[in-house]
Amino acid sequence: MFDGYDSCSEDTSSSSSSEESEEEVAPLPSSLPIIKNNGQVYTYPDGKSGMATCEMCGMVGVRDAFYSKTKRFCSVSCSRSYSSNSKKASILARLQVTGKPPTKKAKVLQKQPLVAKLAAYAQYQATLQNQAKTKAAVSLESFSWGNYINSNSFIAAPVTCFKHAPMGTCWGDISENVRVEVPNTDCSLPTKVFWIAGIIKLAGYNALLRYEGFENDSGLDFWCNICGSDIHPVGWCAASGKPLVPPRTIQHKYTNWKAFLVKRLTGAKTLPPDFSQKVSESMQYPFKPCMRVEVVDKRHLCRTRVAVVESVIGGRLRLVYEESEDRTDDFWCHMHSPLIHHIGWSRSIGHRFKRSDITKKQDGHFDTPPHLFAKVKEVDQSGEWFKEGMKLEAIDPLNLSTICVATIRKVLADGFLMIGIDGSEAADGSDWFCYHATSPSIFPVGFCEINMIELTPPRGYTKLPFKWFDYLRETGSIAAPVKLFNKDVPNHGFRVGMKLEAVDLMEPRLICVATVTRIIHRLLRIHFDGWEEEYDQWVDCESPDLYPVGWCQLTGYQLQPPASQSSRESQSASSKQKKKAKSQQYKGHKKMTTLQLKEELLDGEDYNFLQGASDQESNGSANFYIKQEP
């Protein structure tokens, strides 16, 4: 039975930063127009930005810094919350889901603060309790990966693509035609009995199974998570004293079922005997509640803060900022995220850090051991290295669907860099963000042009189409040397069209049904099923924010299903037109991101950053260079 089967091989405190590390902000040039907004100072080329009010949260801010072409929302979070009826804060989308013109109450809601909207909505909803429900998004309970894949003939990314996920490094030879022992649901016996089934199709952790004896009859085929507690290798029932009983539908087909099984299973593959043990071991996580870490400040990207691990689900951490008295000021990320570090990291490399108002550790809290954090590649900064003012291309952490013209603003220790997006930086540098020199989120000048990716030019830059050669000459800048960038390309196994579960990095507590739509070296374009392309995100192939199909079910995390048409009907016409305009490269570029840094963020309205990263294509070397022009 095990002939030809290769069993799986198993792979297998610091001081507190209590000192303030904030730097003084350089004075602004007197000749540069400035606009103050919500306590933050922003500079603009023309000084004619104007103001706008967010239709979701009511925040007033600089119009040019608002999200989307119509400038209706202050952030991607507000835009998505407004248009999705599956989210707690999507008031107007729920009011408009009937398809009728907005009521007078709905129009009033548009002008009220979110708290008032919630109260009015609760009253409005009470009047609709006895009315028929209109077509809405697929509910969490009704969504099934199996039905979704079967009905559309989708292909899921294999578990081996996700090294950080359970069984990602020891999945072994699990494939179609592998036999397993599973509960027999086609049986009238009062006790739980089992039967043998074969894998017909794999989709991540999920497998489509068919009971032995059904041949080509798919009538009782069923999907299950192969890592579930009811899935066992062939021989488990015999060793455990459990009965093997053929399904009632086919009991009449054979009189000698033992001889049938011997014939069918001779030379067949099954799971390794210690498979369930490996699953259990791969779901043990070193991070524990009450551990203290340094994590990026979601209100100010340029600095870190101390946070405490509140809970751990499948390696994902819910971190609560230490100053949060009601423990609602939180941030979600994976334990291997580049956004979290050991206590003392900021001071050691010269990164800005917000000193905690809490003078001593709370009882039970302790610093996370430094060795538990993801290691970055060591670099040699003694020779030719990145310098302040050098230009490059970078994924915008406030709008992950774009790669932008960027500048190195400060060189830190251990290979870390502070980077700003040209044309849209806060004057005090509060929206600079930190990437390591080996990060897959930064690219040499010319990367987008070579790989046919739309590069977002600086806001206010009118000389389009954008040309790096002209821009470097006009700004008196130099491009960061190509040889300093990470050009390693792992054989990651992803292919265009593969399905997976992906973190919505604009609201990192959410994990959604997603699809790989582009592969550029090791860079993946992730599309959230049912949503517009403007919500797509560039993510590294080794990002810890990507998971196999079935990961949420395995770990108990809630999966967000694809958005239906009804949940998106409140989106503006300009959002839909954007899809058609995408193919027109360099035409009508406008930066679609918000730079307002809110002092008070409501639940879910977080500033989010690219979590997990690297830089190139599926198989093959990358072409990094700047196009030379006469």
TrEMBL record:
Residues 563-575 have a biased composition (Low complexity). CDD domains: MBT_MBTD1_rpt1 (cd20120), MBT_MBTD1_rpt2 (cd20123), MBT_MBTD1_rpt3 (cd20126), MBT_MBTD1_rpt4 (cd20129). Residues 611-622 have a biased composition (Polar residues). MBT repeats lie at residues 143-247, 255-351, 353-458, 466-562. Residues 45-80 form the FCS-type domain. GO terms for molecular function: chromatin binding; histone binding; zinc ion binding. Keywords: Chromatin regulator, Metal-binding, Nucleus, Repeat, Transcription, Transcription regulation, Zinc, Zinc-finger. Residues 576-592 have a biased composition (Basic residues). Pfam families: MBT, zf-FCS_1. One of its GO terms (cellular component) is nucleus. Residues 1-31, 562-592, 608-630 are annotated as: Disordered. It comes from the Eukaryota. GO terms for biological process: chromatin organization; negative regulation of DNA-templated transcription. It is found in: Nucleus. PANTHER family: MBT DOMAIN-CONTAINING PROTEIN 1, POLYCOMB GROUP PROTEIN. This is MBT domain-containing protein 1 isoform X3. It comes from Dipodomys ordii (Ord's kangaroo rat). The gene is Mbtd1.
